[in-house]
Amino acid sequence: QLACPLDLGCHSVSTPKKAASVYTGPRPVISHVFRQPEKRPSKMVSTAFTVLSILPFVGFLITIKSLGVNLSLFPTGGIDFLYAAGFQAVILAILLVLVMYWFVLTIFEAAAYLLVIAETAKAHRG
Question: Is the pTM of this model over 0.85?
Answer without folding.
Answer: no
